[in-house]
Amino acid sequence: MRLTTQHGGEHHVTIPDHADLRLGTLSNILDNVATHLGLDRAALASALFTK
Questions:
Q1: Residue 16: which domain range?
Q2: How confident is the model at residue 45 (pLDDT cuts 50, 70, 90)?
Q3: Distance (Å, rounded) from C-alpha 51 to C-alpha 38?
Q4: Residue 30: exposed, middle, or buried by beta-carbon count in 10 A (0-12, 13-18, 19+)?
Q5: Count of the separate structural domains present in the chain
Q6: What backbone phi and psi angles, to 5 degrees, belong to 22?
Q7: What DSSP element (H or E) covers 1?
Q8: Average pLDDT, stretch 2-20?
């Protein structure tokens, strides 16, 4: 899957279409998105995974 955002400029991220993601793959995706948004990975994970 390829996801695109226009927030902060156009940015694309590709996510493998598997039932399970390897931990390193998820880590790389989060790092990539966090860098684009100007956040550290912990802040991004907190925003995504907490209410």
A1: 2-49
A2: confident
A3: 21
A4: middle
A5: 1
A6: -70, 150
A7: none
A8: 90
